[in-house]
Amino acid sequence: MATPQVIAAPCAQPGSPGASGPRDVTPTSGVIHVNTRHVSGFVVIGNHLAQNHELSLIAIGLAVHIQSLPAGAKVGIKVLTDRFPESEARITAALHELEAEGYLHRSRVRLPSGRVTTRTISYNQPATTAPAHTPAPAPQLKAKQTPPAPEPAPSPTHITPNTPTTPTPEPEPAAAPPAPAPVRVPAPTAARKQPPPLPQPHTPTPELLRAAEAFLADLRRHAPQLTLGEHDIDELTPGVAAWLERDAHPDTIRHALTSALPDPVKYPPKFVRSRLTTLIPPPLPGTTELAPPPRRAPLTIPLQNCDTCDRAFRATHPGHCRDCRTELRQAVCPT
């Protein structure tokens, strides 16, 4: 018999051209990626960072920016604030997030010149533990331990009969423990200088505090950069009240706060507090705040010696004590 021939066409594979046409695999919703292969000027970022649910968008973007920088680039808070539109407080919070997740480690080190600087280490994988010191010492190669050389065989000696000999084993030399790696203790950071306290009014009357609060609320009409919140107005009200108590006109205070403004004003409450503290005028001469009333010295009555009995008693003028005065009065006017 002839060999049967298989003439049936094979089944079409999914997504391959067929009777129903090519299969479309493009998603109907969501993101569609158009990828072009990079050949230079790129950095590899893992999904553990790009899709981290514990980090904010600012922290993720800041981590990507730091990992894309060359070694030795400056990544201080001031540099990042000048580079990006975010405020100094938000960039500082993002750096703390990256340190908590193990993508960043910052430490203070002292250079050979004596200057203290901040050393930043960036990890493309989250570090489980922070380095013990910065910078890390060069790894020391452990010396390869060679087995001790075999002891030479003892030379044959004359053995007397009936005297058993037993070779005495010599103790093996103990291996020396590896030297501990030097640990550098980070230099203590200098304490941050505290700002001067906000001026306080000498007599904070309700009318004075209401006028100061209204002045701060109206400040944004003259300088939109100095828009303050309700909590900030409550904290800065005593400072403006101290200016008003010293007979400073509201226009004078407004000019002191709004003239020569930096561009931009990064933190308006701190800026207003600094100017209220450093530019406050002195009290006017003749006011009670300038010179407090002098305290009256206590009256002290001196000691006197009695002219009759020579006993000490207190009186403004010399004379007789109480007992002698009584005896003299009785002698002059007997009952």
Brief write-up:
Helices cover 30% and strands 6% of the residues.
Describe the structure.
The structure is a single chain. The chain has 335 residues and is mainly alpha-helical. Among the domains are: 76 residues, Arc Repressor Mutant, subunit A, CATH 1.10.10; 73 residues, no CATH class; 28 residues, no CATH class. The protein contains 10 helices and 4 strands. A two-stranded antiparallel sheet has the order 1-2. A two-stranded antiparallel sheet has the order 3-4. A hairpin with a 6-residue loop joins strand 3 and strand 4. Helix 7 packs parallel to helix 9. The longest helix has 16 residues. The termini are far apart.
**Main sheet overview:** 2 strands, antiparallel
The percent of residues in helical segments reads 25-40%
Which structural category do the helix and sheet elements fall into? mainly alpha
CATH topology grouping of one domain: Arc Repressor Mutant, subunit A
Quaternary structure? single chain
General shape: elongated
Gyration radius, in Å: 45 Å
Following the backbone from N to C, one meets helices and strands in this order, namely: HHHHEEHHHHHEEH
List keywords for this structure.
two-stranded antiparallel sheet; 30% helix; mainly alpha; 335 residues; 6% strand; Arc Repressor Mutant, subunit A
Present the secondary structure layout.
Blueprint: H1 47-50, H2 57-68, H3 77-83, H4 88-101, E1 104-110, E2 116-122, H5 206-217, H6 219-222, H7 230-245, H8 250-258, H9 268-278, E3 303-305, E4 312-314, H10 322-332
Antiparallel strand pairs: 1-2, 3-4
